[in-house]
Fold this sequence. Notes:
By secondary structure, the chain is mainly alpha-helical. It has one domain. The chain has helices at residues 23-43, 48-54, 60-68, 77-105, 120-142.
Amino acid sequence: MATLLSYPVTRYALAPLVDLRSKEERKRLSRNSLILFFNIMEKWSVRDEDARELLGGVTNGPFYEMKKNPSGKVLDADQLYRISYLVGIYKAVNIVHGEALADRWVQLHNSNRMFHGSTPLQYMMQGGQSAMQNVRRLLDARRGGR
């Protein structure tokens, strides 16, 4: 008789999936996401022009309004995903490299072939959300979170 294999039962409850198509969900997440984003940009010493690009090419007016009043903006799903990747990168780079190097890491030229000698910041600005996902995966693999 064949034995059926199954995954072991986990003691952790799965968090409910967030539906980013829902304006209410995006509104709920936007304020804190923007606060996190601007704090990370400050820690990494990212210029506003580059921060706008990381958010998907936000123009000056809306960008500075978000910066001044994070409660007044409902981000779209793409912007929330971008910020999510950046928060994950921030966390992972602090684990992998420690705080002293972590805040400079995105601005340093990197010999990893993914970056082609450029900085992780340049790579992410050029490649958008896909590049952010790649950087996140790289750092997660380096910290053992494969």
